[in-house]
Amino acid sequence: MRILLLAACGVILASARRDLDVGVPPGTPLEWDRTLRQPVPTPGRGKVPTTDKPSEKPSGGTVAEERVPKPPEFAYGNTNLYDFFRVTTQDIMQHASLNLPKSTGRVSIDETDVATGGGGGFRMTWNYPPELPVELAWMATMACIRTEIHPEIVSEPESIVYAVELGIPAHYGAKAYPGKIGSQVAKATVVLPPQPPELVKMKDPRDAMLARLAMVELTSGYAYALDPTFARRTLGLGADSYRAVLECTKSRHPLLAQNAVAVQANFPNPEAGVELRKIFQTTPDSVCRYRALSGLLRRRDRTIVPDLVKAAGDKDEVLRCAALYALGMLADPATAPVLCQTVRNAGTRGKDLLWSALPALARVRDGTKETREILAATEKALRGECKGGDKVRTSADAMTPTAEAPGSKVRVLRQMALLALAANGDPGAGDEVLQRLASEGSSAFHPTVWYLVAEVAAHLGDKGVEQVKKMVEVGLDDSVHVHALRSLVQAGKADAKYLRDRASKGSPVVRGAAIQFLADTDEKSCVEVCRATISDFAKGSGSAEAEAAFLVAIAAQVGGKIGAWKDGVLAADLAQAGERAWKTGAYARREGKNDPDITKCRITVHPALLETLLVECGRGAGEKAVDLLVKILKDRAKPAGRAEAALALGGIGGKPAVEALLATLEDPDGWVRYCAYLSLKHLSAQEYFTDWIFASAAQCKTAADKYRAWFRKNPPK
Q: pTM of the prediction?
């Protein structure tokens, strides 16, 4: 009787879980929700602006030679997490309830015997432990739910890798919905440490100061969160803060080390790739390992290929699938034999291995006879198991998904094999892909392979390009649109005229991506687009709300890179645009209650429009912006933009600018002091260093007096 009762309870519990319904986003799990990835801050945000164009050279030969377009990969605007994760069940909180640790307040570190470059010690105060961003925990929960509710169109190993890479938040997300992968994710991650990390030791006073800054910023938030302010100052310093971040990757404190690894790939230093490879090869921390791998992929670093080839034969299927996916993203033709061997050995039973290996062969595109033969045999075998064709249910409405029929995974894999065969030059496969797209559009393929469809079709002649261009306009969400646009650019099928057109139509995210691609395609056209975008905003056309502000920020950022206003033509508009951004409060921030209840959580993310425009004012607005910049710098009631105003004044120079900067050297805000110091050092070519960031204002007086004395002897005009 007891056995029957337990069995009955099991049926009830199972049915309760099955009534969950959650949409599956396009792309395989490792490609899910790319918009959550943290962007690189505006180049020069932590440096004095100049009219010289930043170097775009690859870092020391560790990056693949081809230039890989990097469009904006971040979501701005109002985000309703319930809609964001495409959950349809109203009672989801009965199935998965997050229990997140609470932030307990601010902590301080006092050091009285540490050299700061000017004598004395320092005091650091910051918010630790930081509030855990609910969206990251829910990402892990959704990975668990999707794997259980949609097993036919989700790769379990790739879902685990994706969730683990999210780090500490994934531990709480996995605990909220234990199941097939929840326990593995929870085991590979850790809880948030209640205590902050130990102070990172550095011998040089300047390096020590930057290490303290990096430690504070990297433990005040989370990489990949919907937060444009994460590590913004540290990353804005560029190569100057590289050593500090590198030391943080070696910390025994998991939050510090994991976040440091997450941002390591953003540095242009050649050795950054070397260190990421060491982390991938040696670290016992799974989060750091997969974040290092992601960083290497973003750098297109093919020196990791031997390690990936080795990992592709590992006993750990999770690592194997991650390695196969990575080999595909690096697209090294020399790895095709390894991928082919994997496909051959997997047969039709190793479905998760095929899930990673088939798209990889499509991306490698070595086009050899052996590759085509193996793919043809695999496609034929999968087709034989797809009774009634390989059509998989797709929903035009992402918010109304239903469970997939048994055997759907085989059908999706057959689509992957067909696309891989077409990518490797099989004319019959190419014709079938084009015929499907022409008759049914992107709905001819399951959303899981939409990214792959765009990449393959872009290389299938004019008809394929036409279909990809349709995907830029019609798709499930902006991530599909942007990826399709990227595929056209990488295939050399997006000319300046087309990109200019896309820069004026569609969502701000797609338009921003088009502007960035245009900068590499036709710099002259991009200058015109950037100038027009800034001018329209300066004149009051266009909203300063988050999504619209994102487009203006991209135009300002790209325009600065390509020297769009170094001739001074846009000086008045830049100054006016900066003033409008300041008055409307268009600065980088995250707003909204961090509610663990996904049905209630709404977060608004604002891009760094004000900060970006002020930096560009220093690059091209000249005297027309001085009054505005001085006003912002002096307004301590509104801290946003003050540091950027100090840097911009250093790029302009002149008596009013110098006077305002000298007065700021004893400002209560250490970061603003440091930016004023950078500007004065730039204008005077004199180095009077102290711990401008963490020492007290009184301790900075000696160095400040030296700058005042120098400018008295050398007054600016």
A: 0.92
